[in-house]
Amino acid sequence: MNNEKIYQMEFSKIYRLLVNKAGKKGRTKEEVDEVIRWLTGYRQEELEKLQKTTVSYGDFFRNAPELNENRKLIKGVVCGVRVEEIEDTLMREIRYLDKLVDELAKGKAMDKVLRKS
Asked: Could you tell me the sign of the dihedral formed by the alpha carbons of 50, 70, 100, 61, in that order?
C-alpha cells in the first residue's frame, strides 16, 4: 500500500483498528486514547469529535495541535521498517502511533509507552 492511500484513510476506521488491537490484549480504549493524546496533543473532547467525522488519517496528523517532543524517543520496528529511519515525516508520525499501540498491546507499562522516566 502506498503512503497516499494510508493518508486518505478515515481516522475513525484506523482508530477502531487500534482500539481493537489493544483490546485483544486486554488493554482499554482509554489507554489508546491516552497514547494518542500524548503523541498528538489533541484533547479528549477533540479526539471524540474526530472519531465521528470523515477526517483523513493524514489530516489527523497534519492538524495535530502539538506533537510531543519525546516522540523522537520512539524506536523500533513496525511493519518491518525502523520507525526512526522513515524519511517521510508524515509516515513517521503515523508509525510512531503504530509502535506505541504495539507496545501497549504487548503489555508494556504506560509510563514506558509514554517515555516517562
From this structure: positive
Tell me which residue of 114, 101, 98 sits closest to 24, measured CA to CA. Answer: 101
The angle subtended at Cα 19 by Cα 71 and Cα 90, nearest 5°, is 35
If you average pLDDT over every residue of the chain, what do you get? 95
Q: Give this prediction's pTM.
A: 0.94
Rama region for 107: left / alpha / beta (φ>0; ψ in -120 to 50; rest): left
Q: What is the pLDDT of residues 63-113, one digit of tens each?
A: 999 999 999 999 999 989 999 999 999 999 999 999 999 999 999 999 999
SS (H, E, C) the chain: CCHHHHHHCEHHHHHHHHHHHHHHCCCCHHHHHHHHHHHHCCCHHHHHHHCCCCCEHHHHHHCCCCCCHHHHHCCCEECCEEHHHCCCHHHHHHHHHHHHHHHHHCCCCHHHHCCCC
